[in-house]
Structure formats: structure tokens, C-alpha cells
Amino acid sequence: MTEILEGPIAIARGVEQLAKGQLVAFPTETVYGLGADALDPAAVDRVFALKGRPSTNPLIVHVSGIEMAKTLVEDWTPAADTIAKAYWPGPMTIVLPKAACIPGNVSSDGPTVAIRCPAHPCALALIEAFGKPIVGPSANPSGRISPTTPEHVGDGFPNADLVVIDGGHCRAGIESTVLDLSTDPIRVLRPGIIGVHAIRETLAQPVECDTIADASEPARSPGTIGAHYQPRTPTSLVKSDQLSSAKPTTVLIAWSIDAHPSGGELIAMPSALSAYASAIYRSMHDADKAGANALWIEQPPQATTPEDIAIRGAIMERLRRAVQS
Fold first, then answer.
1. Which top CATH class is 3-209?
2. For domain 235-322, which CATH number applies: 3.30.2320, 3.30.70, 3.30.300, 3.40.50?
């Protein structure tokens, strides 16, 4: 059975599980991760098996800082050093040619590895206490809504032999930006709350966006192939002027109204985009529990500043993948 623990006892149990080649769910500032020893191929296989994750979808390796990251790559480049010093700990994943110590299943047998240092005290405490890097894809069945609370993890894996470290609600709420530093030009493979405008300024060089992956090849980044983040309830992404036509059996996730126009359930969202990002997965989980026939998600508010444009773009990328065709 899934066991939710908090505090030092949770970290100690998590390290114990990792050392045995078992799994532990841990909080980050983005979403909860499903952790295993990144250097143990058998433990990594358990992550894929529990999630039902395709082997062509690589994993992000979580590290305690730059020094640990350097041990996982062929060459720690000046661009990697600049990005890590600017955004770590934080929601920024970097892709570089991998070192020989990285098991093939971590990288889907590709030549690169994705690495990040999470900005959550529980995640950092777990990695530092374990003393080794930890893989950490979202702690949910593959394709479903990412978890931002320990309860979401338990709902996704109610019968797993899994320790869940309770770190509260994840404040960022959506997955990290993934930046491929192994290509020329450098490319954003997955958008996040750190936008391409900020990355260009940080690196003082061109950075492109390439978030459409070739499904015939192993991905260089997680979250770029196929449907993701999907509720179990049939879901539509709608504009504000469509909300009034919702049926009473439709749950609305909306920011621009105070009540469901048809009298059904409304899950109110904040209009500030950073707060919207933090709340969207939790709201989608709540909507799934309502037992409605349909879920309508109102498109997030428009953005004006570069920071908000990046956040809105990341939210929209997730919501488009969440819509069931």
C-alpha cells in the first residue's frame, strides 16, 4: 500500500527504499516525482513498469547541484554552467551528452541525458542524504494528470509498495522548462515557466523552440510525444464566450465567472497566470472526482509581460495535450 510520510522520518524511509532499488515519490516545486536510483537500471525499470511509461520516453535525472551534475555528462559546457548558476535550484532541465555511467533506459538509449536540480527542500534533502542522482518523472500513471499533492500520488498508485514524502502542494505546478544544450542552435524542447526570452538574455545567444518531437525516434525530453496530462473525464478547452452554453452535467474550470451558468459545479481559478499554473493540475484532479459527464477548461487569461507570456505558453501546451479527441 502507498504510505504517505513527512519530516525526517520520510527522508530516512525514502533513502532506505532507494538503497534497496525500490521507488519513492517526492515533492519538487513543479510536480511530485517518482524517484529511483538513476544509476541502477533495474530500479529505473521499476519506474517505467509502475507508470506504464513507454521506453522511448526518457527520464529527467535530479541532482543536488552542479558538482553532481558534472559527473553525469561528457562535458560540462560554459552554457550549462551559465544556465545552472542562473536557474538552479529551479524549474530548468538541461540536456547534454551523457556520461557512460547513465543507464540506457534512463535516456531511452539516446546519446543525451536530461538533468535538473529541484527547488524543494524535501527533494534536495532526499538527494543529498542518498548521495546519488535520482530519476523523477511525474508520480502518476503515464498520460494522466501530473500530481501536485501527496494525495494525488496515492490516488494514482493506491496499491503500490510506495513511500510518498509529503512536501505539501507544489508551488510552480507545471513541469520544468527543458533546454537542449547539445544542439546548435540551443533549443527549448519543452516550455515551462522560465521562458525562451529569459534564456536568450541569460546566454546572450540565439535560442530556438522545438517542442514537436519525432514519434519514430526516442525523445530527447520527456513530455513531448503524444497525449499527456489527461483527466479521465472527457475534456474540452474552451473560450470564455463558450462558458454560458455548458450543461449542468459539465464541470467548469474557469477564472472569468463567479458561478456555473447552468448550475453545475464550478472550480474557480485565479486570473494571475503564475497562480493559475500552480492550481491547474489540482483543479483537474478535483474535476475528475466530481463524476461529471464532461469537463470544460477555460483558456487562461491573456498575457502582456514576457514572463506571463512564457507561463501562458507553458500552460496552453499542457492543456492542449490534456484535451481528449
1. alpha beta
2. 3.40.50
Separation between Cα atoms, residue 11 and residue 165, nearest integer Å: 7
Residue 322's closest CA among 248, 233, 195?
A: 233
- As a whole number, mean pLDDT of residues 149-176 equals 96
Its pTM stands at 0.93
Q: Give the pLDDT of residue 264.
A: 86
Residue 308 in this model has a pLDDT that exceeds 70: yes
The closest alpha carbon to 120, from 172, 191, 58, belongs to 172
- Smallest CA-to-CA distance from 11 within 224, 185, 166, 220 is with 166
Task: Write down the domain spans for the chain.
Answer: 3-209, 235-322
| pLDDT for residue 239 | 96
Whether residue 97 is preceded by a cis peptide bond, meaning omega within 30 degrees of 0, is no
Stretch 69-83: mean pLDDT, rounded?
98
> Is 73 within 8 Å of 180 (Cβ atoms)?
no
3-state helix, strand, coil in the chain (%, to 5): 30, 20, 50
> If pLDDT is split at 50, 70 and 90, which confidence band does 210 have?
confident
Output Rg (C-alpha) for the chain, integer angstroms.
19
